[in-house]
Amino acid sequence: MNAPVYELTGVEHRYGGRIALSCERLVVRPGRIVGIKGPNGAGKSTLLAVMAFLAAPTRGSVRFMGEETAGSTDVRLRRQAVLMPQDPALLRRKVRENVLYGLKVRGVSGGRAAEEALELVGLDPALYLDRWWWELSGGEARRVALAARLALDPKVLLLDEPTASLDPESAGLVLAALRSARDGGLTVVAVSHDSEWLESASDDMYRLDPREGINPVRLENVQCAP
Amino acid sequence: MGYLLEGLSRAVDLLVSGDAETFSAVVATLEATALSLAAALAVGLPAGFCLGYFTFPGKRVARMLSDAFMGFPTVVIGLLVYALLSRRGPLGELGLLFTIPGMAAGLTLLALPMVVSLTASAVEQMDGRIRLTLLTLGADGRQLLLGVLWEARYGVLAGAVATFGRVVSEVGIAMMVGGNIKWHTRTITTAIALETGKGEFAQGIALGMVLLGIALAVNAVLAVLRHRSGG
């Protein structure tokens, strides 16, 4: 079996004195779509923030690609594990610049990356590349945000509620895009309230379950992948 | 009513014929405004960005002072700068009193709090999710700061344009520090005040038309910026 992309052990994250996340153990294998479900306040978004190296856990071990990251928020790690937040905002620029921004900050030439990423999320580049951010509907903006992350060809894509505000057809397009990227070697971790979509999308499925209010929440593997 | 129409007609003649005295005032105005705006932007943009972006002890007091100085009476600024630049003043040796750079120094004191406060507001009012977008797309520390400034660009530019409008139409500082010297430091506003006092409406109206033209152009730029920033 391939070496894990992530190994989280005894990870806890607190906001002030409140425990927002407590994860005993989570292992994410490469080239999988991993779904994590759970009720509000279970710590799903906090878990993704920790995995995206945007928040350093209060305690515990986060091993990424075999390296102990020790709560690092280093940009080198952030560029390999890319998060799409629950309510992603586009930059106040045209669609082309939005999709290519991440490549630009990495010093990488865009080439046809913008066109290919837009096609992957079901948007016609000829129609959308030169549109301003404010000319897009909510669903289109979300798909452009996803294209901007797929264009980066990261090791891991972390998605927080990827189908929020999407109609069923668009949610299906997102799923197709993720499967295509997964088949190309991308590892995806998605958290969602949309159980039906998450179950259809995921190769592995986990549930983040808060126990008794603000007490530590636990991550349980409820469906082990073969 | 007749004398107003006659004044208007003569004003058009002055502008069309390129009257040297009229255009001398326009050039002096634009020189002083450009100098003061450049100085205020050079200092005020970074200061305003830091005030809007970072959290630090004393931030609220700094913001309150910056906002308060926006409403500082211009004659008081004129008096202060006059006192500093006059022969007996601490900066008298520089010989800046009754010069364009001297006027620009006074106008900079007027412009600086506006640039600082309006830049800080533009950064503060920016959608907080933008910062997360920049971070998640891989911006490092420097790229993040530049990215936030770029994303707030329309608000920052709108602040600069509003400051330009305030400075170009200022009269108190220009009169006191510039001295309203013909062919030298006479600006549009001081010339209008002088010519109107003499009952010479034509040149006053001609200069007023130029000032109105500048104000309209400034507002047109603002409208475009608003459109770009919000759709």
Residue runs with pLDDT of under 50 for 5 or more positions of chain A: 212-219, 222-226
What number is the mean pLDDT of chain B?
A: 90
Computed Rg of chain B: 21 Å
Main sheet characteristics of chain B: none
Instruction: Please state how the strands of the largest beta sheet of chain A are arranged side by side.
Output: 6-7-8-3-9-10
| SSE arrangement of chain A, N to C | EEEHEEHEHHHHEHEHEE
Termini distance of chain A? 11 Å
* Shape field of chain B: globular
H/E series of chain B: HHHHHHHHHHH
Q: Specify which chain pair forms the largest interface.
A: A-B, 26 and 21 residues
Overall form of chain A:
globular
Number of strands of chain A: 10
Helix proportion range of chain B? over 70%
Query: How much of the residues of chain B is beta strand, in percent?
Result: under 5%
Description:
The complex is a heterodimer of chains A (226) and B (231). Chain A has 226 residues and is of the alpha/beta class. Helices cover 31% and strands 27% of the residues of chain A. In chain A, strands 6-7-8-3-9-10 form a six-stranded mixed β-sheet, with helices on both faces. In chain A, helix 4 packs across helix 6 (138-150). The longest helix of chain B has 34 residues, at 20-53. Chain B starts with a helix and ends with a helix. The mean pLDDT of chain B is 90. The interface between A and B is medium-sized, with 26 and 21 residues.
Question: What topology does this entry show?
Answer:
The complex is a heterodimer of chains A (about 230) and B (about 230).
Chain A: E1 6-15, E2 18-28, E3 33-37, H1 44-51, E4 59-64, E5 67-68, H2 75-78, E6 81-84, H3 95-105, H4 113-120, H5 125-128, H6 138-150, E7 156-160, H7 168-183, E8 187-191, H8 195-201, E9 204-210, E10 217-223
Parallel strand pairs in A: 3-8, 3-9, 6-7, 7-8
Antiparallel strand pairs in A: 1-2, 1-4, 4-5, 9-10
Helix pairs in contact in A: 3-6, 4-6
Chain B: H1 2-16, H2 20-53, H3 59-70, H4 74-85, H5 100-124, H6 129-136, H7 141-151, H8 153-168, H9 172-178, H10 188-197, H11 201-230
Helix pairs in contact in B: 1-11, 2-5, 2-8, 3-5, 4-5, 4-9, 5-8, 5-9, 6-7, 8-11, 10-11
